[in-house]
Input
Amino acid sequence: MIRARQTHRAAVILAVAAATAALASPARADDGSVVIGGGAEDRDRSVVGAAVAATAREAGWALSRDAVAAQDVDRLLDCSDPVRPWACVPASLGSRGIRRIFVFAVDRKQTASGAPMVVLTAKLILQAPQALAVRQRFCEHCADDRLTRASTEVARQLLQDLAVRSGRTVLEVGSTPAGARITLDGQPIGATDATFNTFPGSHVVVVDKAGYRPETRAVVAEEGKTAAVAVALVPADRAGAPARGSRRLPVALIGGGVLAAIAGGVLLELGSRGGAGDKYRYAGATPAGALFGVAGTAALVTGIYLWWHAPAASAPSAGIAGGGVVAGWATAF
Output
């Protein structure tokens, strides 16, 4: 049974190749290969092979159409030397100009609960400089669409892993003040000010420090270049402080108090005119004037107190002195 399984594993491979060229330029030599092995069904391996080949082409690979011999597939599947990984690559591939290889083992297993599961064990091997990246993905209840998505994600992650290791794409993050936490694409990576290796493409950087408002920046990193992100953090209390509206109430009280005091003075004047039979005398104006005067004075004092204790940075343009009080109260509404 074991020998039969080994024979099946060695025999079941997929070497996906497609060399594409721009119409205006000559065809490129094959420089990459995709090898699919493992004990899963033919359909699973075909789905994985198509997804990985598409990802390789997106990365600029010129894939070889030549099949890989069964014994060479076994050798690639077993390759795990992190120091000299290209020593695992058969000479027949190297002689054809292949310098980078995706190797995927696709196996069917079951979870502890008995659910079907596809296990992807993936490798990316580079010739110059020699490098090896390895990842594994478990896909439960894995229909073709989910298997395609999982294979594509793993292949892209392997490319990103080696791009980060190459050190050719750099991200520099600084903040004022320094010592803020850096989150890159949802993963914490350190604190400012710092420089990190990354992979080419779009990234989202979040800079966060206790007592300050978090800042988010989108940045595009290019191979061979340093992408810089500089953030000036804003204190949380200042960021959340009310702006102009914080002095609307005192302005309204001051303006209303001035108007009420004026109205009270007018009523008191009307109430004090002439004698008892004077037709210009308004007997009820005196108590009303007194009431308006007291209310206006109270509103004026309260408004001045609130104005004095309001945040200085949020002061409106209208002043308190002179006629600016009434103007400020009017424009606030």
User: Anything to note?
Assistant: The first helix runs from residue 2 to 11. The longest strand covers residues 100-110.
